[in-house]
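Final paragraph of the annual report: two paired records, presented back to back.
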Amino acid sequence: MSLTGIERNMEMLKLVHTRPCVAELLEEASREKRGPLEFFDKILAMEVEAREERRIAASLKVSGLPRGMRLESFDYLFQPAVEKAHIFNIDGHSYRLKDFNQTMKGAHLE
């Protein structure tokens, strides 16, 4: 087994986000005496995170939403059907992230 073969297989599996850093991650795993399951889990978690970030960025780009918009700057007077109380928790400071994430990413997320 060689690093070149692993990188080639990662490329074939389209693990493009973690392929460039596999040597560094292998060295880190060896230095910290991590087992193969921990190493594999880290590689997959990094790949999933990178893909999710890319998916969200692409969705936002396609959506046509203006950049930098925040819930704090939303014009509730212009859109009276949107109740501020439904967006903010009772304390008025934290967002209802579950509802916001379902809106932004799709209702299939829990």
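The closing record of the year follows.
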Amino acid sequence: MLYGVILISFPAFASITVLQAMVSRAASEREQGVTMASLTALASVMGIVAPVLGTSLLGQVIDLEPGSVLMGAPFFACSALEAVATVIALRYFSRQRHAPCVAPAGEAA
């Protein structure tokens, strides 16, 4: 069972590296440091906020009877947030793919 959970959750951990690479490519050379620092700061803040929100949500449903669908509310909430983030990312990167690549004045493309 443990190996199955590790295998299933591996893409979630690998996606962090892919996200950083995509953000790095989307920023110019001058903005990459600030952009990557912002991404790291956001991840750090969410590392603090997410457990607090998840625990409080779990506290709301902990007294329900076993087998209740609402017991999975923290997981459903996280899935909904990930779905929203995926839609936002897909919309952003589909616009970037179709946008012309114009270098700022004085820089090569």
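Residues 16 and 43 are 10 Å apart (CA to CA). This concludes the annual technical report; the extension proposal builds directly on these records.
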